[in-house]
Amino acid sequence: MRDLYLLHLTSTSGISLLTGPLPLIEAMAFVDAHVLPHGWQHRYRGVVPADEAIIHLTVLPPKDGPVPGNDLMVALRRAIVCDPGLDGADDARTRQLLAHVDAHRPLQLWTGPEECLLGECDHDERGTRSRCPGVVPAERLCTVCSVIHDNGSEYGPEYLLRVAWPCTVITTACSRFQITVAAPAGGR
Ligand SMILES: [Zn+2]
Ligand SMILES: [Zn+2]
């Protein structure tokens, strides 16, 4: 891993900043010069550069094909970058739109018998798939519009607010940039 760190800075009044990445020596110098004299707390967080992250990510084979809904996100991003009213990826308006829209990604939920969901069943038609065929797509949620509370429980996160994907941010962006939203494939 290359020597890069994010600095997570918090003030006594509760303001929180994430800055960097910086090499560790520069990050420490930054803390000495700018953080400690003003009474802020700091924590270092290691960063894995994108080209090295790809090596880790590709150790395991891809799961059951592309993430459902990802094709719509790709089409929407392309439509924003190519919009004749904007000036491509160099336009600050394009970047603002891309960053806003990108957060509203779909989260696919799955359903099936508990044994199959936990990977403890004896079904062996699984083949190269990571999931038992008894596990089928359920609803899709917007990851930022929904409130997902993860307390590390073995039963997974708790969905305090379920906002279906595509949410209104995505449907509004799709209509603005003339992308057709297909009806969701999975049942609810
Ligand atoms: Zn959303
Ligand atoms: Zn099964």
UniProtKB/TrEMBL annotation:
Superkingdom of origin organism: Bacteria
Lineage summary: Bacteria, Bacillati, Actinomycetota, Actinomycetes, Micromonosporales
Official protein name in the record: Uncharacterized protein
